[in-house]
Every structure is written in C-alpha cells, then in structure tokens.
C-alpha cells in the first residue's frame, strides 16, 4: 500500500484555528509538504498597473502573517516553504514539479473566489489526474452546500442574498490543529525568524499573523466599541471607529466564523443592538462578494463587468497619476490616497469616495483603480475589491446603477473641520485637472 504524501497549499487560510482542511490533512496524511506562493500575477496586473508603486506596508503585513504561521508550524514539527513565481503559468509548472518530486498523492487547497488560484488548480488536475484533491471553503462563513441556492443562481443583489442567508445557521468553528504529519523536506524552508522585522506601518502596533489577529478580535470585543459600531464606522481616520477585522481576514489569519463566535459571546454578555447586528451585516457583504466572484469568475475583471453595456469611461494617464499621487482638485480624495500610500489602509467610506471620484469626476476605466487597490491594500480581498469597484462603476450588483458621491457634501459630513484633510495633506496645489490630453500632449492655454 502506497504512502499517503500530501501537499498543503496555504493561500487565504494562514492559520491553525478553524482550519478544517489542515485538520483533515493532519489525520489523513503520513507525510506533508506545506508551501505558499509569494504572489500570483498575470499580464492583467501589468496592463492595469502602468506605474511603479510602493507597497511596502502590504508586503510587510503579509510577511509578518507568513512568519507567524511559519513559527506555529515549527512548533508542530513542520516547515513552511515559499515558492516564488512570476506568472500563474509558472505557478502551474512549479506545483506540477512538486507533485512529481515528492510523489504526492494528495493536494489540499482551500476554495477561492480568485480566478488565478482556481486556474492553477484546474491545470494541475489536468496534468495529474490521479492526484486526490481536497477542497473546502476555509475563508467564508458558509460552505457551498450550506447555500439555499446554487452558486449560479446567486441573488442579483446583496439585499436578496442577505434575506436568504440570515435564515441559515452559521456553522460552528472547527477545532484548532495541534499535530501534523512530518515534513517531506526540511531544506529550503523559511527561517524561523522570518517576518519578525519591526513594523513600519503608520498604524502603530498593528502586525500581521494569526496570534495578532486573534488578540485584536478579543481586545475589540473586550471593549464597548461593538455597541456603537454603526454610528462610528464611516469615520475617515479613527482606528477604533471600525472593527479593522478585514486586515486579518484578508490573509485568513482569522476566520469569519471565529469573529461571529466572539460577537455572539459579546451579545450574550452585553446585549444585542443595531450596531452589533451591523458587524454581521458587513461580514455578510464580504460573503456575498466571495460567492459573486465564484459565480462570475473572469467577468469580475471585465470592463463591462456583469452588465451588457460598458461604462462611459476611458484612460487618461495624467489623471490616473494625479489620483494616485493625491494631486486632484478634490482635497478629501487626495487625503485618502495619501493615507493609503503611507499605511496600506483606507476607511470604507474613503474607498467609496475615491472610487466614485475615479469613475465619475475623472472619467477613468475603473479597472485601473481596482488594480491599484489590489496591490496597495493590506486587506485586499479579490471578491470584495473587484465587486465593490464594479458596484461603484455601475457594472456590478448595484440595482440602482451608477453610485456617485457628492465629494463636497461628503467632506462636510465626515471632515467638517478639515482635520483629516490637513493631517494627510489633501490640499494639493493643483490648479487644473488636466495639463495634458489623453495621449499626454500638453494642453495649450
């Protein structure tokens, strides 16, 4: 009888708690090779990100998350290997080589709404039809079988989805993995101290990783912040105003079911109100966009989105650069973009304002903005990011079509004294929106 030799691909589940897939591998395999891809990229990324960027904050947070997972695996006698590739086709080849080199019989990889990941899995299946695949939804509240509809019949609006899913019980949290099979290779594993560098994030004291994420969740629910969440969540620059759970959800350092578990515990002790409900409401939004990405696949990145008519936008290189550099005629937009460059984070309200400006005031192809966010946000999530950009561009799930914000009115509502704009230097010296035309020829007065 052949030895069961497994590969575990960590993607959006960089944790030991509530990781049903890893727990299955721990009891089903006799030997295990744990790895993750540093980043999966395609020609699409290079096309829609035509400038050099500084994504140090995002990379550092992820490095800390991977480093903490690495240490947790070491304590269980395992090792973590980083695989660096320049394209998804290279990822297919690298994974195929691992299957052959280790004579792997099984592959464990969480389901994802990422078209990139699913492409690599499909191609690996073609190359290795005898490889036994193990899949589950490790980053969501629900498994596919929990849904009261087929994924292809996903409701066309979040409201329809929410009404159906609020009637479904959220599954319980899986037990934490406490033992693992021995590694097949200890050479070239990440060093034990990987990811332990001092953080340079402007958000002081914020680190990536499972332990840091769980600590943040516990601390949040140890305060009364959840009781006023709905009232404070739209503030532009107050760390305690919103939960910030998205930072650790993005890499799977914390599971959404764990957050719900802590929320229910808080409500039993302190009572439930509209604000505590709104925390679950936001998690359901994230859930909706996950299944939205699963349903529409590559259409998540299409100019027309899921609609039949393309938006009336184009691409002006100079306007795009003004937006990125925080030098538009709109101070609140500039401040938000400067905040993103410095910290790798922007409030939910800020994201709506800068995306609305990008599409409506600047008239730009929404995919360039979405791709920039993809590479800058610490809490980048493929479904939430691209689904929300489609929503704002009028090519997504919003039944009302275009969603345009009055930037002056929004500034008065959320920064009436100009504190946020001054802090993040939003009053750029920009006398005109355009100094060149759409093909970069100077505009003559």
UniProtKB/TrEMBL annotation:
Q: How is the cofactor bound?
A: Binds 1 5,10-methenyltetrahydrofolate (MTHF) per subunit.
Residue limits of the Photolyase/cryptochrome alpha/beta domain?
4-141
Q: Which cofactor does it need?
A: (6R)-5,10-methylene-5,6,7,8-tetrahydrofolate; FAD
* Superkingdom: Bacteria
Question: So what does this one do?
Answer: May have a photoreceptor function.
Q: Which family does it belong to?
A: Belongs to the DNA photolyase class-1 family.
Which protein are we looking at?
Cryptochrome DASH
Which organism does this sequence originate in? Vibrio hangzhouensis
User: Upper taxonomic classification of the species?
Assistant: Bacteria, Pseudomonadati, Pseudomonadota, Gammaproteobacteria, Vibrionales
